[in-house]
C-alpha cells in the first residue's frame, strides 16, 4: 500500500511540523494518522513528503480515482 509506505516512512517529519497544531485543535490525546489521513496527496501533510514519495502517492491516488 503506497500510502502506508510514504506517510509511515515520513511520519516524523509530519509529526514535527503539524503534531502540536493537531493536538491543539483536537485534544492532547488525539494522534496524527500514520497513514496521512485526511490528506489525499495535495494537502498540508503531503508538503512534508520527499518529491519521489509525493509522486508515488499521487499516482496511486489517481489510479484509485480512475477505478472508482
Q: What report would you give on this structure?
A:
There is one protein chain. With 68 residues, the chain is mainly α. It has three helices and no strands. The chain has helices spanning 2-9, 11-26, 51-67. The protein starts with a helix and ends with a helix.
Could you list some keywords that capture this structure?
mainly alpha, 3 helices, elongated
Based on DSSP secondary structure assignment, what is the total number of beta strands?
0
What gap, in angstroms, lies between the N and C termini? 17 Å
Helical fraction equals 55-70%
Radius of gyration (CA) equals: 12 Å
Major β-sheet profile: none
Question: SSE layout and pairings?
Answer:
Blueprint: H1 2-9, H2 11-26, H3 51-67
Summarize the structure.
60% of the residues lie in helices and 0% in strands.
